[in-house]
Amino acid sequence: MIELPHLDETDQAIIKLLHENSRISYAKIGELLSLSRVAIQKRVDQLVENEIIENFTIRLNAAKLGKVVSAFFEVEVEPRFAEEVGNVLAEDPNVISIYQMTGSSSLHMHALLKDDAALEQFLYHNIYKLNGVVRVNTQVVIRRFKQGTGLEL
Fold first, then answer.
1. Which of 63, 69, 108, 147 is the Cys-Cys partner for 113 at CB 3.0 to 4.6 Å?
2. Is a pLDDT exceeding 60 seen at residue 122?
3. Could you tell me if 86 and 20 lie in one domain?
4. Domain span at residue 43?
5. CATH (domain of 25)
6. What is the mean pLDDT of the chain?
7. Residues 6+ positions from 95 with CB-CB distance below 8 Å
8. Is the pTM of this model over 0.85?
9. C-alpha 62: how far from its chain's center?
């Protein structure tokens, strides 16, 4: 477990429990930590207010929802178009995450797509058509060993 020096042991324990199961009730957390539900709620509210906790979410099984192709893209972009291309791609519902990386002007992107035809469509109609795109390196995931949800404690 990563120790966060600016958080006390109770806050760290709350975060760990929420990370394992974001649906756990404040009453159950309180029971596990020997605190009241109200005390837990106040601490969680403070963690949210201080932006330690950014949001509460679920992880969906993409394959069961018809998105069987998981692909990562290195999109090399002319520097003057990097922000524009990044913003356009960030709006695409297939895109899970996108980051601007150091080095050559490249964007690192993860997308989930229905099938190989959708991958081809995405490449040619959503990426290559954008002004400033120089090259795209695509890597399709064949097996996942671990998927994170952000910083894990």
1. 69
2. yes
3. no
4. 9-49
5. 1.10.10.10
6. 91
7. 89, 109, 110, 111
8. no
9. 14
**Same domain (yes/no): 136, 78:** yes
Q: Is residue 115 part of a domain?
A: yes
Cβ-Cβ contacts under 8 Å for 81 (sequence gap 6 or more): 130, 131, 132, 133
Residue in the block written with tokens 């960030």: 90
Residue for token digits 């974001």?
A: 22
pLDDT in tens, 5-54: 679 999 999 999 998 898 999 999 999 999 999 999 999 999 999 999 98
Residue 133: φ, ψ to 5°: -75, 125
Structural domains in the chain (count): 2
